[in-house]
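Q: A small favour: would you put together sequence and structure tokens for a protein?
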Amino acid sequence: MQMTFPSPDNKLIQIITEPRYRWLRHMLFFMLLLVTYNSTMITYMGDLGIIGRSVVYLTVIQFVIYLIIVYVNIYLLVPRLFLKNRYIAYCITLLLILTVSFFSGYFLEYFIHFKYSIEPGRLSYMHGTHIVFVDFISDILVTGMCCIGTTITILFRNWLVDGRRREELGIGKYRAKLLKYKNSVSPGFLSDTLEKAAAEAGKDSARSVDLLSRLSRFLRYRLYDSKRDSVMLKSEFSFLDNYLSMMRSIRSGFDYKIILSEESLNIAVAPSVLINITDSIMNAFNGDVPVELIVEFGRNSKDTSEVCFRVESEEMSSLAESIARDCENILKFTYSPEYILNYGTGYGSLEMRVLLMRQYPVK
């Protein structure tokens, strides 16, 4: 099953992952901590007349302690331990820091009661109903969940960024491979054609020369004319016919038919687009497998046209999906979105329709 990553246009994903929203992440987190860790103010609310402004200072001190713990986790423990797969060291270090945090809060309350000689409140660690060990576990869990929450957020952000980077890298490599394939010639086809020409040289030299002449025109088109922005569809069909006729000469079980109307004379397409699709179809079959290919041009409307590829073979049932997927990727990664492929399968047959969404003049 292929992993699908959230769209980069998602606003929530942008807030979590992008550096330009770092200030917003820290502000929201700061406000959350400010609301969560004001226990000192709540504990001594009834003793403000005795403690006075000192309770504000003590609250700030305790809040700063928790703030330091969280940011030490974000900027030290997570990148140096957790993200480097040192999970045991991370857990032990975080537990030690949380333990120090608990006892610092405990001794802070002890200092308040000792200095101002006030009785421990119901929420104080030193109240008679409180058990120190239970308070320790509770405090460790609350602060630990806050730290682990930031760790999970960082882990999720790194997963998104790294996954998207790997996805883009994979697409880039695949696109580069297809772009290289766009103007290339199949080594198998070239080798088989030369072998056929060599074999015919001793029997029928004229046929051998004709085969080599057609091969040279095809190679010139693939290597040079394919660098142009567009070519006439009639020219593309002409070289496609040349390619398929050579293919029929070297493959005994292959036959083809091209149906072309006069309406295609003023249509322009990207060079080699139809040849690459045909080449992808032919490469899916072994040389001895009987294959019949029909290529037909048709016009849907004034602005759209289509080229239909109908392939019939005994092995088509097992190859149809992979052939259609390869042809779809060729159009997607090597040509513009103006080429849309739709396909359907039948018993021993595959029909693919390449929709030409726009016609433009040859440059």
User: Anything to note?
Assistant: Residues 359-363 have pLDDT under 50 and may be disordered.
